[in-house]
Amino acid sequence: MSNKKILNIQKLGFPWVTEDPFLMTVHHNDAYPAGNDEQGPSTSLAGRNLGQDFMIKDGFRMYHGTTVPGFPAHPHKGFETVTIVLEGLVDHFDSTGARGRYGNGDVQWLTTGKGSLHTEMFPLVHKDKGNPLELFQIWLNLAAKDKTANPDYKMLWAEDIPEIESADANGKKTTVRLIAGKLQGKNSLDPAAASWANDPNNHVGIYLIRMEPGAVFTMPAVSKTLNRNIYFYEGEEIYLEGTTVQAYHRAKLTGDQEIEITNGEKEAYILVLEGEPIGEPVVQHGPFVMNSEQEIREAFNDYRRTQFGGWPWGRMDPVNEPSDGRFARHGDGRIEER
């Protein structure tokens, strides 16, 4: 590629390709219909491979859910999930006894650490209208020294997440939601304590960028070793230093040079993931991410022996009450309500 600031351009698939310190990113976008009394779809589920329904049918997927869409209780170990909900709601239950409901701009930062069971169910709380859901789930690796951290999660509530609004020379606006990192002198909320993102020297950045038609925005230079990727997931086309990038493409960029992004004729939406690499071996098997095959075997043995503390809830796909608002009840008894 002739432009030395752009290292690669690639069409997005499922999941999205990421780089160290990130492990994976998925983009869920489902047009769920009105809900029923069980907070599932008020429509027939015939013809679906329930429990493994990942194909769009009638505008939505059930994923591993059989009554309510989503992901019933499943284990994780050795990494973090950062779940950014753009629209819709997610119900969380886990093996520490924590539960909650978040969405419509909220972010959950979950450290699975030494092992956690949790759910991500998508309750369809509206019975008189549709329940659209759009979210990103980003898997962020943990350094070896932090893979034994206690499982925990932190809520970044939508009202608290910093936003940066800037205008170019022609008055065209760009808005950046700062999920993690530092940009234009503004810091994000603190990530989870054990996270690679918790050390500012690791330059972890997770940004959501919205650009007006014709807007120009410049990504700053950070470091030569930075892994920087932008995911242009909605719009028509953008131009990176004059190079055209079509919607639903990833662009890998250099980290030590400024990058000018110019939007085309439609509003553009971009996810940015960047950070210094952890630089350790990564061995992944299903829901476990460790540094060696031996550690993976030990993780499976630990899960079979302990179930990561067991499952304190009466069903594997629990949901909160339809009338519940956004809240987090942590395993230590702390309660947050929004």
TrEMBL record:
Transmembrane segments: none
Gene3D superfamilies the UniProt entry points to: Jelly Rolls
Boundaries of every Pirin N-terminal domain copy: 50-140
Residue ranges with Basic and acidic residues bias: 323-338
Residue ranges of the region described as Disordered: 314-338
Pfam family for this entry, one: Pirin
CDD domains assigned: cupin_pirin_C (cd02247), cupin_pirin_N (cd02909)
Domain called Pirin C-terminal: residue spans: 209-309
Record family assignment: Belongs to the pirin family.
Designated name of the protein: Pirin family protein
Species the sequence originates in: Neobacillus rhizophilus
